[in-house]
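Query structure, 234 tokens:
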């Protein structure tokens, strides 16, 4: 698979991160589920410029709106709802989304772990620095989808999802329904809501599990710090 090159949009999020260090050794179906829980930030920004779709508030306008900030800082709360558990698995942390750089996903609880997602793949920080996670075909495909959402690669998203946008610039909802048989095995749909920035991403899986990622206190006011620039440069 070929990774997308960075584009201007930044306003959205992640398709949700669950700490699982065995992603590189999973079967294709299991790898898709692993990256499904990791990438409910992918999203992050759903920046889709799709010609020929006439709406009061259309996908091109959404793309333009979310593309404005160069850097977004914020907090996240992720809830993983499993059919076998009465309460969701909750994780919290902070994120930095930077145009032309990628995403820093900094997990604080229930344990501390830093991730970096760029066109090169997913890296995890350890005592010696950033280490790239091994990628298999299914995991690489899911990473490509994440970056397509993050960077507003409409061609990549249209190939894999049916897209439906409702609402207005201050209160919108984007629904992604899988086209491919491989993605249909994992997802029923992905729901993304927001206003000026993305507020939430919800992944609904075929087996009844779901992931809800809420982006909180997001602000485009701060530039990258020296440490953040270094993290993206390594």
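Result returned for the query:
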């Amino acid at each position: 698979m070929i990774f997308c090159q960075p584009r201007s949009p930044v306003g959205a999020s992640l398709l949700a991160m669950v700490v699982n260090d065995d992603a590189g050794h999973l079967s294709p179906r299991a790898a898709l589920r692993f990256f499904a829980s990791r990438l409910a930030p992918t999203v992050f920004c759903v920046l889709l410029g799709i010609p020929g779709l006439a709406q009061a508030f259309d996908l091109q306008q959404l793309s333009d709106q979310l593309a404005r900030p160069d850097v977004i800082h914020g907090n996240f709360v992720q809830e993983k709802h499993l059919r076998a558990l009465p309460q969701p698995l909750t994780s919290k942390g902070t994120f930095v989304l930077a145009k032309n750089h990628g995403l820093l996903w900094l997990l604080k609880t229930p344990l501390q772990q830093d991730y970096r997602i760029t066109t090169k793949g997913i890296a995890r920080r350890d005592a010696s620095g950033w280490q790239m996670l091994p990628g298999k075909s299914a995991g690489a495909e899911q990473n490509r989808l994440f970056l397509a959402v993050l960077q507003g690669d409409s061609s990549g998203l249209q190939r894999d999802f049916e897209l439906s946008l409702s609402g207005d610039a201050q209160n919108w909802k984007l629904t992604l329904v899988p086209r491919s048989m491989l993605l249909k095995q994992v997802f029923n749909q992905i729901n993304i809501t927001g206003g000026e920035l993305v507020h939430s991403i919800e992944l609904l899986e075929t087996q009844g599990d779901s992931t809800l990622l809420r982006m909180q206190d997001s602000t485009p006011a701060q530039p990258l710090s020296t440490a953040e620039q270094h993290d993206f440069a390594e």
